[in-house]
Each structure stands twice: as C-alpha cells, then as structure tokens.
C-alpha cells in the first residue's frame, strides 16, 4: 500500500488549505450525487472547519456560496458540506473512483486528494473513533454504551444514489455520513432515539454518532444496526410488478407499520395540535410558483394545481399535526422477514432543518407513499394503474385499522398533499434525473385536471 502522507492541522495549513483544494473542489463537488447546487456553478468556496481526523485524513466543513448574495439575517447564502479527504503521495489504482485531483499549489502541493470514504483503511479508522467516545478538535464522538460495537468490521461504501454517504460495517452496522450540514440535531438522530424511548421497534435505534461544535453545533453522522437480510420496499414492489404478483398484502402491512410509527411519534413529541390549513395552503402555493419558475413544463397546469391548495384552506382539518417522517416513499422502508421497518428520518434535505422538525399533518407521509406506488407502477410497460390503485387502497386500509382514522375519507387533504409531493418530484427530477420527469408530470396532469 502506498505510504500515507501525514498532514497536521497547523494554523498556517488551515488558513492556506483552500489554496490547494479550492479549484479541485470547484470541479469535483458539482459531480457528486449529494451536492445540491448542480444547477449553478460553485461561485464561492470557503473553509469553515478543518480537523486532522487521523494521519492522512482531513475532516472539512466547507461553505459553497452564491456569489456573495446574503442569506437570512445577513449570513452568507449557500450550503455547508462535510468532506473527509484522504491525502497521499500516490493513489492506489483500486481507489481510482475516489480521486479528486492532485494539488498543484499551497501546503498540499504535489499530493493526491481523494474521497476518504472510499478507502477501507480510513473507513475502519472512522469506526474506531465511533467505538471510543471522545473529541478531535471541534468533533464529538458519542455512543450508546448498552450496545457494543465490535472492532475490525470490514467496511463497504454503498454505491446507491442518495443525498448522503453510507458505510456498511460487516453487515452489522450502517453509518450514514451527512453531506449537507445544517445547524442543530439532525432528525435522523433525534427521531430514532425518541422512538426507541417509546419502545417502537420499527426504527433501528442509533448506537453511535458524531457531531461538531464549530462553527455551529450540528450532527455529522449516525451509526445504526444494519438489517442485513432486508429488502427495501422499492425493490420488492418492482419484483412484484415484474413477476405479475399482487402487492396488496405487503401494502396493507406497511400501512399498519406506518400507523404504528405515527402513533409512537405522537407520543414521543406531544402537544402539536392541528395544522393551520390556510398557512399550509399558502406554503404549498409558494412552492408551486417556485417550481413552475424553474420547470417550464409545469406552468400550464398551475391553475388546476392551485385549486387543490385552495380547497385545502376550507376542508376538514384532519388528524392533529405531529412529527412525521417527512420524505416517506418505498425506498425508505425495509422488509425483513414479515416485518416492515422505517428508515431515513432526515426529511427532504433541500428544506431547512427547522421546517423538517416542525409538526405537520401525517397525511403528508401517507401522500408520499401513495405517490411512490404510482412511481413503481410506471416503471413497467404497459403502465398498470390498477396495480397502484390496489396498493393505495390496501395501504390506507392497513393504516386506518390501527390509526383510528381513514386517509381515504380525507379527500381534500390527501389531494393537496399528493399535489404538493408531485410538485416536489417534478423539481427534483428536472434537476437530477430528467429522464424520469414524465413520471411526476403524468400525476401533475391528472391532479390538475381531475383532482384525483
């Protein structure tokens, strides 16, 4: 193995580091799946925090700016990203996909820079830091002492598309490393801890995590048990479609599982009350207007979609607002044996953390899952709308059996939240997967014209 270059976090290095890294990161960041600014160049790049996690691995928090435009309260606009960068004289061929580039100037001149999460050695050392609580500069490593984590578990980086990066250790634990960092406790730590306190077994409880205290307190990563024999709901749904099998039994059980999680969330975060449908409708309309500005194909349907939000302001207020998942779909649920589990409580990463932590109608989660059934059904040709309709009925029936109220009887609420979700999907696909844009656009046309 090539010798690892040891880099020390001397003040001069921290000050001059972007001289070495700036241009490399400007080119590399927009190509990453988790980078939110694909529709604009990295106009500004600043170093917020740098820590030598161990020799040859630097932990960075970097700010990507929007050309000097101030954000709320005069703070710099843009995003904060977490990077773990390996530094070596030469890079092993097996790490070729991790390459960021070779520094030409500054304190790292002549050294090769790469994404350290691809490096098994760095991944193993990161797990060791998590196994032993302590500090490294502004970084804090914390554990649940009741759950031992063995040493020496072999790591592998998951290659699936997602807004963060995940390492699996020995098929026993999974570490989610958050990429886009916002101040505060990430819901993907806060919510599973709270649900574990309620005895809810539908959500794997965190066993270790790390955070930063500088420049502001924020969660950086969470280690949880890995359900090794589980399959995600998306894969299971596509398998059922490909083989011509029914999925209603699984959808009904999934509805019951989600009702169980919602009941546990309501108990863990009490005192939410009812949504203000008027303000919710206004926020949905604002998101629609912004999406239509970015995606011209959406504009002809705006009047019809606005009617869904207008009806929300006068319809039944529905179930009380509470903490919810926030980004529920078939890819966020796992089936192990005969049991469903719910994962990824981070919510929609594009939305502010404070918004993701607010109480909302549980109909939002239900709408997300119903839209996901439609997404799955449209992966097959010819499209099978009856498959999606049966799944919708089964999921809502399972949910109603445990929750004590039936989503199918909240037509106005459900239409508004499905419309809001479809608008989000249009914007997402236009930015990240243009070939998928026809899937949510078909729903937009249906919701705008018929209001189903």
Helix and strand topology:
Blueprint: H1 11-28, E1 44-54, E2 57-70, E3 76-88, E4 99-102, E5 112-115, H2 120-131, E6 134-136, E7 139-143, E8 155-157, E9 165-169, E10 173-177, E11 180-181, H3 187-197, E12 208-212, E13 218-225, E14 231-232, H4 233-243, H5 248-268, H6 277-294, H7 302-312, E15 333-336, E16 339-342, H8 353-356, H9 363-377, H10 385-403, H11 411-432, H12 438-449
Antiparallel strand pairs: 1-2, 2-3, 3-5, 3-11, 4-5, 6-7, 7-12, 8-9, 9-10, 10-13, 12-13, 14-15, 15-16
Helix pairs in contact: 3-5, 4-9, 5-10, 6-7, 6-11, 7-11, 7-12, 9-10, 9-11, 11-12
What does this protein structure show overall?
With 452 residues, the protein is of the alpha+beta class. The chain has three domains: 11-125, no CATH class; 136-225; 231-449, Alpha-Beta Complex (Aminoglycoside 3'-phosphotransferase, Chain: A, domain 2), CATH 3.90.1200.10. Helices cover 38% and strands 20% of the residues. It has twelve helices and 16 strands. The chain has helices at residues 11-28, 120-131, 187-197, 233-243, 248-268, 277-294, 302-312, 353-356, 363-377, 385-403, 411-432, 438-449; strands spanning 44-54, 57-70, 76-88, 99-102, 112-115, 134-136, 139-143, 155-157, 165-169, 173-177, 180-181, 208-212, 218-225, 231-232, 333-336, 339-342. The protein has a seven-stranded antiparallel beta sheet with strand order 6-7-12-13-10-9-8, covered by helices on one side. Strand 9 and strand 10 (173-177) form a beta hairpin. It is globular and about 65 Å long. The chain starts with 10 loop residues before the first helix and ends with a helix. 42% of the residues are buried.
């Amino acid at each position: 193995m090539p010798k690892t270059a040891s880099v020390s976090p001397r003040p001069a290095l921290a000050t001059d580091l972007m001289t070495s890294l700036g241009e490399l990161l400007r080119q590399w960041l927009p190509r990453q799946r988790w980078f939110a600014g694909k529709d604009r160049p990295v106009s500004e790049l600043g170093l917020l925090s740098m820590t030598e996690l161990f020799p040859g691995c630097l932990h960075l928090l970097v700010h990507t700016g929007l050309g000097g435009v101030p954000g709320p309260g005069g703070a710099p606009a843009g995003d904060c990203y977490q990077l773990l960068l390996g530094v070596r004289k030469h890079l092993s061929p097996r790490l070729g996909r991790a390459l960021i580039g070779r520094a030409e100037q500054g304190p790292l001149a002549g050294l090769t820079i790469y994404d350290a999460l691809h490096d098994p050695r760095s991944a193993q050392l990161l797990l060791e830091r998590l196994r032993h609580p302590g500090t490294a500069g502004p970084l804090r490593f914390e554990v649940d002492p009741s759950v031992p984590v063995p040493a020496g578990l072999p790591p592998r980086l998951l290659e699936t598309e997602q807004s963060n990066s995940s390492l699996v250790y020995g098929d026993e634990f999974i570490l989610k490393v958050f990429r886009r960092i916002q101040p505060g406790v990430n819901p993907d730590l806060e919510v599973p801890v709270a649900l574990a306190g309620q005895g809810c077994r539908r959500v794997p409880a965190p066993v270790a995590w790390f955070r930063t205290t500088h420049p502001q307190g924020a969660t950086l990563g969470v280690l949880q048990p890995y359900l090794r024999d589980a399959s995600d709901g998306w894969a299971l749904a596509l398998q059922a479609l490909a083989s011509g099998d029914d999925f209603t039994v699984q959808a009904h059980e999934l509805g019951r599982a989600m009702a169980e999680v919602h009941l546990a969330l309501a108990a863990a975060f009490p005192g939410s009350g009812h949504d203000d449908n008027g303000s919710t409708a206004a926020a949905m309309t604002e998101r629609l207007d912004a999406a239509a500005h970015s995606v011209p194909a959406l504009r002809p349907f705006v009047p019809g979609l606005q009617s869904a939000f207008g009806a929300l302001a006068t319809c039944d207020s529905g179930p009380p607002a509470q903490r919810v998942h926030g980004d529920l779909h078939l890819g966020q649920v796992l089936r192990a044996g005969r049991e469903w589990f719910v994962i990824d409580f981070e919510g929609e990463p594009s939305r502010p953390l404070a918004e993701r932590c607010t109480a909302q109608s549980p109909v939002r989660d239900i709408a997300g899952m119903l839209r996901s059934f439609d997404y799955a059904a449209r992966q097959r040709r010819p499209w099978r709308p009856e498959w999606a309709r049966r799944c919708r009925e089964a999921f809502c029936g399972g949910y109603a059996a445990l929750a004590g109220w039936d989503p199918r009887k909240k037509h106005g609420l459900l239409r508004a939240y499905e419309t809001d979700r479809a608008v989000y999907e249009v914007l997402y696909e236009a930015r990240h997967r243009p070939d998928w844009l026809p899937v949510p656009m078909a729903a937009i046309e249906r919701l705008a014209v018929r209001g189903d």
